[in-house]
């Protein structure tokens, strides 16, 4: 599995720095981008520097036709300063701590924005919303203010231009071998108890199997199934309780105890892969397509290839199919879906630059309909065409082995500068009608969990948090592994675990977070 669509969603939910400004925009545009840009009398393109997270899956290419068109149309010359993606966050902190920051810094996560927002390094974009009409419009259209609130500082200021998805997608789901469900006359599991019963039956039918497998890590499994258990989404394990108006730590609560108890039972009875927390993506795939495992949580967009391989390796009847969320103590909830994965920041020093207004105009263009269309759909009559008033990808794109791969190779859907992802675009890229059907069902039945409330910390509080979290995360991970695989007893060691976590910093952080609410 070279670049699973699991990463595609995370990557696509962040993509392509649209480069087109107002001076040379098409006259057909109806939004703010059509007004044109005055580069303070300059006749050549406006040169802007941009820090760029460079993925080995689709390395930056200055000769992408799309990239050239964007710059020409915008009358902008982008000086791309690429950094290999694995090193990006470390380099990002170094750059933001220096006195020399590019005009545009892409792919900045919420925790980094929070870290640097209050020390004068970043530009408070909320002070300039009158110069960002397209961004303001899209925030309202997407009804995303609840999630955007987590990116604001305590004084309400916003220091990031957010990448935004128009809607959450039900693209991660519990997935089961539907051919075996039909063959043995089993009921599709709707609760965790029913899931246990189904896995037990499938184990009896194939004693050499380990019915449940996991994509790769303990965090992945918890992220994909934790909402149903009532333990996720969270902020590093901490959750805000709307009833008590206070924070608590999920991973010492009763729901988490039920979660690790369930996994321990699966491991003990050999109903789950013994490599549940340590398997690789390639190993997981092999287990699924050879029939060694028959249930997992994964991306629906993975299923076409998995089923093709399974039909070759196991049976022509092989069918992995997504099902509705399996209800647990937390309810019938799907995995949390962030609609704002990251964004672009601008240094505060940019406000003193003679081209400041043009810089903001360029950023705002990325949120315009015209700019967004270019960076997601590509070039008309090359990567897409308009048929009966609707955009659709051309055979050049749909005929490729992967639509996403074809877009990446053209410079579109690049994680550094696409700021908007429309529902229609996502559905066409994923090219799986199940995603659309299940997303509509998820919205109608309220399967998506609520947004996690992120505490708003001062720089000093953030420093204290970082110190405590290092110890907490390490202790939590070790205890989780021990509870699931038998190194610790849930019956006899649980109370000591809870006390130990409190002493390692959980209580201090709960107090810290609750103080931010005053």
TrEMBL record:
Annotated signal peptide: 1-24
Keywords noted in UniProt:
Cell membrane, Lipoprotein, Membrane, Palmitate, Signal
Known InterPro entries for this protein?
Bact_solute-bd_prot1 (IPR050490), SBP (IPR006059)
Q: Which PANTHER family match?
A: ARABINOSE-BINDING PROTEIN-RELATED, POLYGALACTURONAN_RHAMNOGALACTURONAN-BINDING PROTEIN YTCQ
- What name does the UniProt record give this protein? Extracellular solute-binding protein
Show the taxonomic lineage: Bacteria, Bacillati, Bacillota, Bacilli, Bacillales
């Amino acid at each position: 599995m070279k670049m699973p669509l699991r990463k595609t969603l995370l990557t696509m939910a962040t993509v392509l720095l649209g480069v087109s400004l107002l001076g040379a925009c098409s006259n057909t545009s109806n939004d703010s981008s059509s007004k044109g840009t005055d580069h303070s009398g300059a006749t050549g393109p406006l040169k802007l520097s941009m820090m760029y997270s460079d993925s080995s899956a689709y390395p930056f290419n200055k000769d992408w036709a799309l990239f050239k068109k964007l710059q020409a149309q915008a009358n902008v010359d982008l000086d791309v300063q690429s950094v290999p993606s694995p090193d990006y966050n470390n380099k990002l902190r170094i750059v933001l701590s220096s006195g020399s920051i590019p005009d545009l810094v892409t792919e900045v996560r919420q925790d980094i924005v929070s870290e640097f927002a209050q020390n004068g390094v970043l530009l408070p974009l909320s002070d300039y919303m009158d110069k960002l009409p397209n961004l303001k419009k899209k925030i309202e259209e997407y009804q995303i203010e609840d999630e955007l609130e987590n990116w604001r500082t305590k004084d309400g200021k916003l220091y990031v231009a957010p990448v935004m998805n128009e809607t959450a997608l039900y693209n991660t789901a519990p997935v089961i071998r539907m051919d075996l469900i039909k063959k043995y006359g089993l009921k599709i599991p709707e609760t965790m108890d029913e899931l246990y019963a189904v896995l037990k039956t499938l184990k009896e039918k194939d004693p050499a199997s380990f019915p449940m497998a996991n994509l790769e890590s303990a965090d992945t499994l918890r992220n994909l199934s934790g909402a149903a258990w009532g333990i996720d989404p969270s902020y590093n394990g901490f959750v805000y309780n709307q009833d008590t108006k206070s924070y608590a730590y999920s991973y010492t609560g009763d729901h988490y105890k039920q979660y690790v108890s369930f996994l321990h039972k699966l491991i003990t009875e050999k109903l789950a892969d013994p490599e549940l927390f340590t398997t690789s993506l390639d190993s997981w795939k092999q287990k699924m397509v050879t029939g060694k495992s028959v249930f997992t949580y994964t991306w629906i967009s993975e299923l076409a290839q998995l089923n093709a391989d399974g039909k070759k390796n196991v049976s022509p009847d092989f069918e992995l199919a997504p099902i509705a969320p399996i209800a647990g103590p937390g309810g019938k909830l799907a995995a949390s879906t962030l609609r704002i994965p990251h964004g672009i920041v601008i240094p505060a020093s940019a406000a003193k630059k003679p081209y400041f207004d043009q810089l903001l105009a360029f950023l705002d263009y990325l949120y315009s309909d015209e700019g967004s269309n270019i960076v997601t759909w590509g070039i008309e009559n090359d990567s897409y065409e308009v048929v009966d008033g609707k955009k659709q990808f051309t055979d050049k794109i749909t005929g490729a082995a992967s639509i996403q791969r074809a877009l990446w190779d053209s410079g579109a859907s690049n994680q550094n500068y696409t700021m908007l992802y429309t529902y229609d675009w996502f559905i066409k890229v994923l090219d799986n009608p199940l995603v659309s059907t299940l997303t509509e069902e998820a919205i109608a039945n309220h399967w998506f969990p609520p947004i996690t409330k992120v505490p708003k910390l001062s720089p000093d509080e953030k420093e204290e948090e970082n110190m405590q979290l290092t110890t907490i995360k390490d202790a939590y991970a070790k205890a989780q592994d021990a509870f699931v695989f038998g190194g610790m007893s849930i019956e006899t060691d649980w109370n000591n675990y809870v006390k130990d976590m409190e002493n390692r910093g959980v209580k201090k952080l709960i107090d810290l977070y609750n103080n931010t609410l005053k």
